[in-house]
Amino acid sequence: MLNLLEIMQNAQGGNAYQNLAKQFGIGSDQAQKAVEALLPAFSMGLQQQTQTMEGWQNMLASLGQARNSAQFFDSDGAGIPDSLENEGQNALGAMFGNPETTQAVARQAAQFAGLPVQMMQQMLPVIASMVMGGLFKGAMNGGLGGVLGGMFGQPAPTPQQQAGNMLETFFGGFFGGRAPQPLPDPQDPVAAGLDLLKGMFQTGQEVHTAQMEALSQIFQQVTRR
Question: Average pLDDT, whole number, for the chain?
Answer without folding.
Answer: 81
